[in-house]
Structure formats: structure tokens, C-alpha cells
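Morning!

This is the sequence you dropped in the shared folder:
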Amino acid sequence: MTTGNPMVPKTLGPRTLRLVYGTPDAAATAAELHLTSEVDLAHVVMLREQGLLEPDAARKLVSYITRLRHDDFAEVVDLPMPRGLYLAYEGRLSEVLGADVGGRLHTGRSRNDLKATVTALRLRDLVSGLVSEVQRLRAVLLSRAAAHRDAVMPVYTHFQAAMPVTYGYHLLGVALALARDERAIRDAAADLRRCPLGAGAVAGTDLPIEPARTAELLGFEEPPRHAIDAVASRDTALRVLAAAAGAAVTISRLATDLQLWSTAEFGMIRFPDRLIGGSSAMPQKRNAFLLEHLKAKPATAIGAWTAVASAMKSTPFTNTIEVGTEALGGVWPGLAAVEDTVLLAQTVVSGARPCPERMEQRARQGFVTATAVANTLVRAGVPFRTAHSAVAGAVRAAIDDGREELVLSAGPDLPGVSVPSVAEAVEQCRYGGGPGEFDAAFAAARTELVADAAASAQARARLRDARERLARAADEIAAGPGRSDGRHG
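The structure's back. C-alpha cells below.
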């Protein structure tokens, strides 16, 4: 009976190949290979500097990889991939350069630490882009907050008019919440400073590689600290997804407010025609349908986190397909949904137009100055519960009489007090972070945004510098032997 040569690689059937490796399009394949080849270039530079790769082999590898990158990997994207994208790509290197050259690229590393590093690069780029867009949304919110800081309106609790605030004050609160969400995303991504490359398959290597050098060339701050941890863990991606989902949840809550306030019954917000949709059957409809997208999109991120965490749970603490492939497959669409939410929110918030007259009317009809009147009695020496009861009675009387004005008559136990206007009540709430403290809260929020944007710009500049260093080192190797034995900065 013939059993076949066990050393000859077998291939999966077409259907199983599709199920295991998917069917990525040329653009997705090229995008992954750009990240992979960036790691390759850093690895070749390090191998050459460590004397683990001959000058001519290093030159040929760098030159061909650079050419592939320039051509967007046109030679690779349509290749058969019976064992996955990376091995098809590496096979192409050996086919073109010869096994004695192409086969040396993988010296001192594994697909495990390579894949973990590519994941870190991809996640780092996505986090940078997402944080930048959240900062733009914060800027939009602060701009609209400043423009509408005097548009008085009721704030609602339990969907009932509660106290007087302004539309600008409300937007400022959302901006502050998003600042915390952004900080959570950045904190979750903090461990991306450490590069997994060098961890090898699972226990490092006995070859004298220099992981700190590849980390530096790839824009990381530190090499791996522990090989098993480096290839086993994708917890940073899970935390980033959770934090990003939190930002989307914050946005969804604003969307709920805007949708409620834009109904005819409230009439406090209006959207321009470009941001609303009509009905195929009802001519009068003005549907603020973008808000429904904002409310629904966070579900994709929340569902993605649940799927990713479920795929990771109870797996061995080592390199596994469940963690490194299946779980991560949910991270990317989850983060994409959050970024879409942020981008859409920028458009919606900038386009929303408050209706000041209607806002003030709703505030008066909701008797939102009642607490201010009660507190005026407190300042006159009346116990708060007595004042609360008296003002509640005055509100009931106004409602029974069909009046919007609150009138509090003096009595034996009550001094005569004036009822402030809605705007006056807003201004008087100067304690505990109330709307009367708008200027201080706004200034702090703006200062924080400027600092966060500057930090993001510095981080992007550091990555650009690292890529330039890598390009220079690779160019020196490609130029010929004898020029890349030392480190160049």
C-alpha cells in the first residue's frame, strides 16, 4: 500500500482553503503584505548587522522586497496559497532569488512572532487613525458648544424636564465624555510600544539576534520581554476594541437625545435637508435617519468584542489559531464600525441646528426653574423640604390653571421671592459643574484637546522617523556590501 512521502506538503481542497484562509481581494492581500514586508526589511537589516546574513543575500532580499512593495505586490496577490499568504509570499522570494537567498529570510524568527508583529503594526495604525477622528469629533462638539452656549433648554431625567441648561453645555458634556473614551483607547493601546518580533515560535531562539534593533526600526519602544506572552497574547486588541466600543456607546447616547429632540413633539433640533430622508409613501416625513445608524453601529463593535473574547476564552496560553486568527478576525470590523460611527457623528453634530425659541418654550413649560425657586427660599432660611413642598404646590397650581409661569405667593411661613427666568437660573448654577461654570469647563476641555492632539502628532512623527530610519538602512544594504555592517541612524 502506498502511503506517500510524508515530507511532501499536502494541500487542502478548494472549499477548505476558502474556509481556512478566506478569499481576500487584491487590495487586502497587498495591504497585509506591505506590513509583512516592512517587518521583513527590519529583520534583514538586523540579520545583516548581526552577521547572520551575508551582504549579497541581504542586498538581493532588500532589493526584491522593495520592488514588490513598489509594485503593490502584483506578482504575489494572484499566486496559489495552499498554505496561506505568508508561505506563498516567501515561496515567491525563493523562486525568484533562489532557495539559498529566499530561504534565509526566516532566520531567527517564526510565523508566530511575525504574525503577532504584523497584528501590532496594523492595530497601531488603526488606533492612530481612530484617535485622530475622535479628536476631530471633540473639536466639532466644542465648536458647536461655544456657538450655542446661550441656547437655553431643559435637561431631561427620566424623559421629564428637570433643570435649565443650554444646548452648548450639553454638547460640552458629551465632549468631556469622549475625551475619557479617547484616553481609554490610548491607555488600552499602550502595550503596543513592545514589539513581539524575536519571540520566535514560542520560546525565543538560540541565534544571536537583536530584537531591540528590529523594534527600533519598526517604531516600537521595546523588544519582547517574554516569548510565550509575546506570541500567545492578543489582549491589547481586545482591550482596544472594548475601549473603542465605549466611545461608540457615548456617541449613540447623544444620537438618542438628538433624535428625540428633533421630533415634532419636541421641535428643539432641526437638520438641514441634506441630512434627512423622506418617505416613499408619506410626503410630510423628515426622517433623521443618520441618527438611527449612529445608534445601531455600536452594536457591531459590542458584538465583535463578545465574539473575540469568546474565541479567546479557555484557549491554551501559547500560540493558537483561535486567538491569533479566528479571534482577531472580529477585531477589524469592530474597529471599522467604531470609526464609521465617529465619522458619521462629525457630520451629524456639525449639521444639527438648535431651535432656541422652542427650546426656551419647552424649558418654561417644564417649570425647570422650580429647583432654583426652592433654593431661593433656602437662602432665605426656609428648610429645603418645606421649600420643596411649597414650590411643588405652586407648580401643580400653574398646571391646573393652564399657566406656563410659576408664581409663588408669600405666606406666614414663606417670604416673598422672585422667580428667575430660565436664562437667569442657568447662570446661577455656578457650583458643582453646573452650566454657570461653562467657561471654566470649556477652557479645560479645549486645553485637554490641544494637548491630546499634540501628543498624537508627536506619536505619528515618531513613526515617520522610524520608517525613514528603516528606509535608509535598507537603502544602504541595497546599495551594496560593506556599507551596512554598522547601525545608521
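Headline: The chain has three domains: 14-107, 112-361+439-464, 362-438.

More detail when I'm at my desk.
O.
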